[in-house]
């Protein structure tokens, strides 16, 4: 993945011609011009809406067995979708995505799964960005042995395939959603640390940084008020794309039984739990699989769009 | 002169023969390392026949007394084809026990050569219809037909064992024709198989039990006697009443399954004597839990292995339903912990699991000693924590009686005591099924899970079987896993055997046996002319060696895969010369 830093010297003609327009306005304009980015944003907006309103949209609790429903429902486990509007007999309870192996409403679990997946994506990336930014900034700004130590540790982490390393970490600290988040967060840190370090290295030699230093600004002020804000754009791109891979990794861990534990409605674990029913109840693997794919696709489309929109060299090609 | 010399030589020969007849000459020919039985403090090996230099040197292993806690008193090779087993206590189930796979016979020389493990774990030398040709770990196990097999054989020349943990994968392989038979058809796939004219479904009788075990061991990690809620009998009773077992069986088990009224299936004699298990009563359960000091419930774990067995066809689903039920009915929070199969079994056996766990048992032979005796008897493992004296004493008494009517009161007492103490909750006797290509002749489902492929034929040279998992090892004296046992059963044989597709005991390596009136002396007459796969002949010393390496913990060959030899201790009590820790 390539990331580009934006420096004042490289601002393109479009930006220079629009004196009163900020970088973010240019970015938004470029994003909206790109159809794939719009598709990504629309999917993401729907997902966020679903996640925020799951408790009102879902007809049942995601952990409620229909055997415990009031009154208990006469429904088979792993029943096919039943939608009245599509001709399902009215004497059957309506489950628009069917029921799972424990007679829970699949649709309700899918809705709550969206909340969990987004939470996983945002929280792991936030964690990784915070740690990675601090480490990358320190390494890039101070250089020398601090940089060497930090970046060699990051290189060691990068040497492992991220999912394999996450599995190893979860194996050590034990399965569970929180531990899975921690593991994914840890394996994501090096990417952010390297991006920030690169940005800091290029920005720290800028005149305005030198000016701040000459005016007596302390290290903290220079680093966090002058350098980091100007090294933000590649981090945004990396973060957006990172959410997609974090969601995918979390789903993989849950599929393997190392992430979210039952009865938590997590798409990966839902997929894993019903993997043996791929022929007899394909809808139970189709819906979670589709949801994971769409979510990852949305973040990737948005991330690609952001990368291009924030890259001055691609201004006229988007 | 020549005549005098001839007379002298004749006299010398005659004198030698007379000395030999008195035993002096033969005594010097006995192996120097084997001591006379009367002089041994513990296990001894001594020549049993000393009449002539050419006489058979029969081995004997004997315990000086019966105080060591085991059932065996001695094993003796009376002559080349006669083995006598003397027991400390009467055991009417002895034929059923000794017929089990774990007590199969291998050449004494091979056991010695392997040191009790090594090649023995991967290339057993038996007398069965198939010989191990190769074992590619992680891929397949290949057998070749035994050209010297003494029994009837109608199988394929080559038998291949494959494995796949996913029922969907097994079914797909069968449908695509790459395998000829599969074990444990997924519960939801029964109809698929029945609807396919190219396939045939064989239901396996529910001769098993799925139970929820409790670790009431006060020393369990993370708890002491006062904080482990499961050490409290009332808590266990409350959980027993707070689980709707009908709901589990009705919704998550295939046809042919039934709710367990007792630990042992009712088709086994005396299996269902005594009071039926607790009915579902959420209100009473809640009240009892409050009385036990946990009105608001508590949090614990539910351990299991994600492995399909006939007694538990859909582990994840059942686990989650238990989780939901206990939360709903008793506010007990169960954190599900799925463990690797081997680690789970080892931890359960050692009593190291916290909380609740789901496990099961399939019949090895149809007798209460294989169900109640193995799990709750004096020789049982620590899987349920501390043993209950009223249960063990009733089981010990019942196991020594011959008639079912005489045994009934003891098993009734044992079942009632189990119901009171609740070391586990019997949930279901699970129906399961195998599937074969419709073209396979002789296919069947064994109620004991020991399908014999030497009677199945698909019309080609190669028969491919796919089961749930890879065997752990092929030295089944030290294995308990059904996937390993089935593979062993193709290769090795015991003195007796279970009939094909049934549970009745019939002759195998022993053509017949005699027993004394009090059921303590069992004399087996071996089949003559039986050859092992390595070309050596079966004799009585092979039987003594094969059994004594399991029985005698001091035997240098008592090593095996893990050294646990769980079936021996489970069925025959303590080991001879067991170290104090055991």
Largest sheet of chain A: none
Large-scale geometry of chain A: elongated
End-to-end CA span of chain B? 73 Å
- Structural class of the helices, strands and pairings of chain A? mainly alpha
Report the mean per-residue pLDDT of chain B as an integer.
88
- The unreliable regions of chain B are 17-51
- What is the helix content of chain A? 55-70%
Mind summarizing the main beta sheet of chain B?
7 strands, mixed
Structural class of chain B: alpha+beta
Question: How would you portray this structure in words?
Answer:
- The complex is a heterodimer of chains A (about 325) and B (about 575).
- Chain A has about 325 residues and is mostly helical.
- In chain A, about 65% of the residues lie in helices and about 0% in strands.
- Chain A is built from twelve helices and no strands.
- In chain A, helix 4 (about 105-140) packs parallel to helix 12 (about 285-310).
- The longest helix of chain A is centred in the middle third of the chain and has 37 residues, at about 105-140.
- Chain A is elongated, with a radius of gyration of 23 Å.
- The two termini of chain A are about 20 Å apart.
- In chain B, the strands form four sheets. Chain B has a seven-stranded mixed beta sheet, with helices on both faces. Chain B has a six-stranded mixed beta sheet with strand order 10-14-9-13-11-12.
- In chain B, a hairpin with a 3-residue loop joins strand 4 (about 130-135) and strand 5 (about 140-145).
- The interface of A and B includes residues 65, 68, 262, 277 and 280 of A.
């Amino acid at each position: 993945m390539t990331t580009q830093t934006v420096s004042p010297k490289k601002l393109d003609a479009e930006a220079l011609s629009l004196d009163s327009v900020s970088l973010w306005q240019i970015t938004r304009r470029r994003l909206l011009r790109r159809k794939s980015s719009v598709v990504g944003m629309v999917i993401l907006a729907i997902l966020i809406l679903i996640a925020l309103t799951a408790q009102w949209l879902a007809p049942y609790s995601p952990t409620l067995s229909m055997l415990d429903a009031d009154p208990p429902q006469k429904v088979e486990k792993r029943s096919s979708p039943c939608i009245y509007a599509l001709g399902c007999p009215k004497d059957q309870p309506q489950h628009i995505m069917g029921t799972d192996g424990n007679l829970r409403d699949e649709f309700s679990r899918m809705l709550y799964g969206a909340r969990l997946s987004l939470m996983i994506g945002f929280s792991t990336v936030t964690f990784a960005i915070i740690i990675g930014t601090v480490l990358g900034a320190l390494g890039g700004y101070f250089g020398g042995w601090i940089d060497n130590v930090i970046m060699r540790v990051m290189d060691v982490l990068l040497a492992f395939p991220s999912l394999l390393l996450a599995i190893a970490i979860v194996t050590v600290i034990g399965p569970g959603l929180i531990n899975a988040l921690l593991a994914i967060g840890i394996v994501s840190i090096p990417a952010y640390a390297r991006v920030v370090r690169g940005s800091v290295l290029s920005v720290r030699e800028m005149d305005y940084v030198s000016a701040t230093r000459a005016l007596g600004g302390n290290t903290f002020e220079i680093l966090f008020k002058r350098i980091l804000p100007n090294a933000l754009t590649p981090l945004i791109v990396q973060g957006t794309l990172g959410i997609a891979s974090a969601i995918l990794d979390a789903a993989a861990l849950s599929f393997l039984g190392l992430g979210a534990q039952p009865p938590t409605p997590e798409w990966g674990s839902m997929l894993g739990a019903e993997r043996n029913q791929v022929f007899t109840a394909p809808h139970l693997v189709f819906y979670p699989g589709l949801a994971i794919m769409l979510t990852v696709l949305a973040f990737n489309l948005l991330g690609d769009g952001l990368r291009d929109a924030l890259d001055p060299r691609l201004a006229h090609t988007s | 002169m020549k005549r005098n010399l001839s007379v002298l030589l004749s006299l010398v020969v005659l004198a030698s023969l007379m000395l030999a007849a008195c035993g002096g000459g033969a005594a010097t020919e006995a192996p120097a390392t084997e001591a006379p039985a009367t002089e041994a403090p513990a296990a001894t090996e001594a020549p049993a026949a000393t009449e002539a230099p050419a006489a058979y040197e029969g081995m004997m292993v004997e315990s000086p007394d019966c105080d060591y806690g085991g059932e065996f008193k001695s094993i003796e090779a009376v002559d080349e084809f006669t083995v006598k087993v003397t027991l400390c206590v009467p055991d009417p189930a002895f034929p059923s026990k000794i017929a089990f796979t774990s007590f199969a016979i291998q050449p004494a020389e091979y056991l010695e050569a392997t040191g009790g493990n090594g090649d023995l774990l991967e290339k057993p030398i038996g007398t069965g219809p198939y010989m191990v040709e190769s074992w590619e770990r992680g891929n397949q196990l290949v057998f070749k037909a035994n050209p010297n097999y003494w029994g009837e054989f109608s199988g394929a020349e080559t038998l291949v064992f494959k494995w796949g943990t996913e029922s969907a994968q097994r079914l797909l392989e069968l449908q695509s024709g790459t395998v000829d038979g599969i074990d444990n058809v997924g519960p939801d796939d029964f109809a698929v198989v029945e609807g396919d004219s190219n396939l045939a479904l064989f239901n396996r009788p529910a001769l098993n039990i799925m139970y929820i075990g409790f670790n009431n061991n006060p020393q369990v990690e993370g708890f002491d006697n006062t904080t482990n809620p499961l050490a409290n009998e009332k808590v266990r009773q409350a959980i027993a009443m707070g689980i709707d077992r009908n709901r589990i069986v009705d919704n998550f088990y295939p046809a042919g399954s039934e709710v367990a009224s007792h630990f042992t299936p009712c088709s086994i004699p005396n299996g269902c004597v005594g009071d039926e298990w607790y009915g579902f009563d959420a209100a009473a359960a809640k009240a009892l839990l409050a009385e036990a000091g946990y009105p608001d419930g508590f949090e614990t774990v539910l351990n299991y292995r994600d492995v399909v067995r006939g007694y538990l066809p859909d582990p994840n689903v059942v686990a989650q339903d238990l989780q939901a039920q206990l939360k709903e009915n008793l506010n007990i929070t169960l954190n599900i912990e799925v463990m690797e199969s081997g680690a789970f079994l080892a931890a359960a056996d050692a009593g190291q699991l916290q909380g609740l766990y789901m496990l099961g048992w399939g019949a090895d032979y149809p007798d209460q000693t294989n169900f109640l005796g193995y799990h709750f008897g004096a020789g049982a493992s620590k899987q349920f924590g501390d043993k209950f004296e009223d249960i063990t004493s009733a089981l010990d008494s019942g196991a020594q009686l011959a008639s079912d009517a005489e045994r009934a009161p003891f098993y009734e007492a044992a079942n009632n005591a189990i119901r009171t103490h609740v070391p586990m909750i019997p949930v279901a006797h699970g129906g399961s099924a195998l599937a074969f290509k419709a073209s396979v002749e002789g296919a069947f489902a064994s109620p004991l899970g020991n399908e014999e492929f030497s009677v199945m034929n698909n019309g080609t040279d190669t028969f491919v079987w796919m089961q749930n998992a890879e065997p752990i090892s092929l030295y089944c004296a030290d294995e308990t896993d059904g996937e390993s046992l089935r593979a062993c059963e193709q290769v090795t044989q015991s003195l007796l055997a279970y009939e094909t597709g049934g549970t009745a005991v019939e002759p195998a390596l022993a053509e017949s046996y005699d027993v004394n009136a009090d059921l303590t002396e069992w004399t087996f007459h071996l089949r003559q002319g039986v050859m092992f796969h390595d070309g050596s002949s079966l004799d009585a010393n092979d039987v003594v060696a094969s059994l004594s390496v399991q029985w005698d913990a001091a035997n240098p060959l008592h090593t095996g895969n893990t050294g646990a030899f769980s079936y021996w201790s489970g069925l025959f009590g303590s080991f001879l010369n067991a170290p104090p820790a055991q």
